[in-house]
Structure formats: C-alpha cells, structure tokens
Amino acid sequence: MNHNTPLSPLSPRPLRHLSEVHRRVMTAAQLKAHGVSPAETAEQCRPGGPWQQFLPGVFLLHPGPPTSEERLHAVLTYAARERMPAVPAQPCAGGPHPAPAYTDAVLTGLAALTLHGFTATPPLTALETLDVLVPRMRRLRSTGSARVLRTAALPTPQEVTGLPVAPVPRALADAVAELTDAGAVRRLLTEAVRGGHCEPAAVVRELTQAKLLSRPHVVDAVDSLLAEGRAIAEDRLHAMVREHGLPDPVWNVDLRLPGGPHLGGLDAYWPEHSVAVELDTRAPRPGHRQDEDESWSEYARKRETLERLGITVVHLTPRKLRDAAEQQAAVVRTALMAAVDRDPAAYVVVLPR
Q: Is 61 in contact with 81 (CB distance < 8 Å)?
C-alpha cells in the first residue's frame, strides 16, 4: 500500500513542508490550495480510486485502512476550528515546516489515556470512535470515527506525540462517563494513581465537575482510588526518609498524654526531636461537605494541641511528595535541626496505631 500517493502532477505547490502524516491527511481547502480542484478530488475518491474521504471535508491520500496516527490527525483536523494552513508563509530553512496546531480541539477519553501510556485502555486500533473536546458553542456533529464532546471550557492540553491531549484527570472523567463496567472504571482510576499520572484529589475533582459521583459503580471505584492513593503516599513518605538520609522515625503511631486524652494519629514521629509528619490525603466529594469540614476541624485542633505541647507538625500532601520530595525532605530536616533551639516538649506516650 502506498501511503504517499502524490497530488496531481499539475499541483503548483509541493508538500515537502508538511510532515508525512499531514501529506496523507488533508482537507478540501488544503487540497484546493495545492491546486487540486473539488472535481479532481471527487475523481480521486471514486470507488477504487487512490484517495478516500474519511470524514466530512477530510481526505486520506491513499487507499485502504487508515493508520492509528492518521485517524487521530483526521479527527483533530475535522474538529479544529481553524484548519491547518495549507502552505507556510515562509518555508523553514533546513527542514520541514513544523506541524500546525489544532485550534479548539483536544483529544480526550480512552484514546487520550492510551496516548498517556495507560495499559488498562484498549489499543487505538480497537477504538471505534475517538473522543475530541470542542467549545460548547461549536456547531459540529459526531460522525464516523469522531465523537464530539462539548465543554464550557477546554482544558489546557498536553502535547503527546505532537497531538493536543487532555490532562489525565479530564480524560479519565470523559472516559468514565461512557463506561458502565465497574471493573473497567476501577482499573482506570487505580492505574491513574498507581502509575503516577495524577493524584486522587485531581481525579475526584474532575469526576465531581462531570456529575459522575451519583453513579454507584463510580463511587465504589473512587473509594478504592482513595485507599490506593493513601497507600502510595505512605510509600513515598517512607522513600523520602530513606533516600534523603533522614533519621528513622516511628511510623503510624498514636500520641496520648500520660493518663490523659488521646492526641491523635501521625504518619511519622521523631520522639527525640518532637517532630511529626501528617499526610493530607483528603479528596473533597459532593455530599460529604459536613464530614470534610469536621475532618479539617479535627485536623486543625490536633495540630494546635500538639504544637501547644511543643511538637512541630509538618503537613505534607501526596502531590508534594511526588513532585518535590527533595524539597519536602529539606522541610522535615529543618524542623529536626531546629529542635535543639526549642524548649523541651511535653512528655507524651507513643503507641502503635
């Protein structure tokens, strides 16, 4: 199969400035700019001809099935508000013209997750439709391989293999909206966190905005997600202490005043320095506002009580541990070193949690 079928030899404008895939996926306007009339385009796309119309106004310049790359570019070309320029104003010296951007079109859903490297998603070749986000006011319909999803605000895309792709939390929400299989939803959410793609709070935020947390199978998956996120955050905390040479704390303990009240649980505690670390793995969810407010109030009370007793509490989030472990280790180290300059803390009983 020849994936480089040339344009008409009468075309006055060669395609050397375009990337290979953009020589194979073109719009009617681009073809016209290269000297190919609508009549000639129709002739080339006749049954058995060398070209084919893949989506309205979007053509593949070869016969036979499109590649996954061609399908992705074709869907983006169809959905983009401004079609890529057919000819650069000034050809780039020393190389091909850079691939044009797709305006107001962002890949999302399962295809986006596959591009992000997920293994729980089908390969691109197995996806009958590819989801693409466009602004809500666009008048564009889903057709063929393109499923158009409208949104009030396009997410800032991430570039993956040169394509505009929705960030993982948004792509997850768009994928989950189409899934009814509880196991599939749980696998996607778990991989998002376990694979280091994003934090649970970001996923829950997108699922909330998409109004998906009214679905029981999604709620169950979120519960598993939060448990997974907690375990991963604890592992990162252990790794931070080990890899950055901090002294070993006692892990997962409860503090109590001698013969007195329970002071609360901590993820790590250095008794000799009276320094504690607590992980904040909360993820706000609709319908749980009162519980969340009570949880935050309890945390604030615990912190205030411990600090009144002379115990320094370092508050860490999973995202900080993932993205800035060295910086967080420096914060803990500074607190440990400052212990020598503080008044001795009150005596507390340390118990396993």
A: no
Mean pLDDT of the chain: 85
Contact 275, 268 (CB under 8 A): no
Which residues, in sequence order, are bridge partners of residue 350? 255
Classify strands 146-151 and 25-27 as parallel, antiparallel or unpaired.
unpaired
pLDDT digits 0-9 by tens, 280-331:
877 665 555 555 556 667 777 888 899 899 999 999 988 889 889 999 999 9
Which of these ranges, 50-54, 256-260, 290-294, has the smallest mean pLDDT? 290-294
Q: Is the dihedral of CA 59, 65, 69, 74 positive or negative?
A: positive
Gap between the Cα atoms of 13 and 336, Å rounded: 69
Distance CA 264, CA 270 (A): 15
Enumerate the H helices of 244-315 as residue ranges: 289-308
CA distance 187 to 200: 14
Q: What is the predicted pLDDT for the residue at 292?
A: 55
pTM attached to this predicted model: 0.74
Query: Which structure tokens are listed for 264?
Result: 């609360």
Residue labelled with tokens 């480089």: 4
Q: Please list the alpha-helical segments (H only) found in the chain.
A: 20-24, 28-33, 38-44, 68-79, 109-115, 168-176, 182-194, 200-209, 216-243, 289-308, 318-323, 325-338
Phi-psi category of residue 188: left, alpha or beta, with phi > 0 → left and psi -120 to 50 → alpha: alpha
The span from the CA of 330 to the CA of 336, in Å, is 10
